[in-house]
Design goal:
About 35% of the residues lie in helices and about 15% in strands. The chain is of the alpha/beta class and about 240 residues long. The radius of gyration is 18 Å and the shape is globular.
Length: about 240
């Protein structure tokens, strides 16, 4: 990833353009005002447990049909963006095409979701914990997408980031697996590193929330090894 000073210099010499439509942008952003406004957010009504968005008029909090039959070990998951083609492409371009500058855009969407969800403001002494990558996959990709989003979130919110988890198993891709198989695939994949005792709430950060299996595996390790945590929640850029 380019050094921030170099990025600012390049932005001055060659002002950035919108990632979607190539319209010139301002303030170092990579989405123009029009594309930002058209990036479909997850807004109420949504499931209070998994964050799945729903259409229609639902005025009270609710659990979706899936969550009524699942036992998550985190308090709630919140995603910023709906899984539209444009939003999905943002994550794909960032994650697989190494468009590193999109980490900041995705983090800003996450920050917006946090500000619009009062549950985040109620978390005591929070810390961001990015979902880790196995070293081999990180070496192949060149970076951990969750860590980059978390780093940008820290810059914007001043909530610290800690790499409290490590991944010891280079598990097969979970794209085509259901929730049950994903959980089995992740058995023993994560270990606890360390976390200072003054942190009382953990915000697990990742790029996409799909079935919740990865978040469940991470939360399970945190509950076992960081008993000071009162709450564990999940924050992602996209709802899969």
């Amino acid at each position: 990833m380019r050094h921030p000073r170099l990025t600012r210099l390049l932005d001055y010499l060659y002002p950035p353009s919108c990632h979607h439509c190539e319209t010139p942008t301002q303030d170092g952003r990579y989405l123009c005002e029009k594309c930002l406004s058209e990036s479909t957010r997850i807004e109420p009504p949504f499931c209070e447990r998994c964050g799945e968005g729903y259409e229609g008029k639902i005025e009270s909090t609710f659990l979706c049909p899936n969550c009524q039959h699942l036992d998550f070990n985190f308090l709630f998951a919140r995603a910023a963006l709906r899984n539209t083609h444009a939003n999905h492409q943002l994550v794909v371009d960032f994650k697989y095409l190494k468009k590193f500058y999109l980490a900041n855009e995705l983090a800003l969407f996450c920050k917006e979701a946090m500000e619009n969800d009062l549950r985040f403001s109620e978390l005591r002494s929070p810390v961001f914990i990015p979902v880790p990558l196995h070293w081999r996959r990180k070496w192949q990709r060149g970076f951990n997408q969750a860590a980059e989003i978390s780093r940008q979130l820290t810059k914007h919110t001043h909530i610290p980031t800690r790499n409290a988890l490590s991944r010891t198993s280079n598990t097969k891709t979970q794209t085509r697996l259901g929730r049950k198989d994903r959980l089995k695939n992740l058995e023993g994949a994560f270990i606890f590193s360390k976390l200072e005792p003054h942190f009382k709430s953990a915000i697990l950060v990742d790029d996409v929330f799909t079935t919740g299996s990865t978040a469940t595996a991470c939360a399970d390790i945190l509950k076992k090894h960081a008993p000071q945590l009162e709450n564990i929640v999940v924050l992602t850029a996209l709802r899969g």
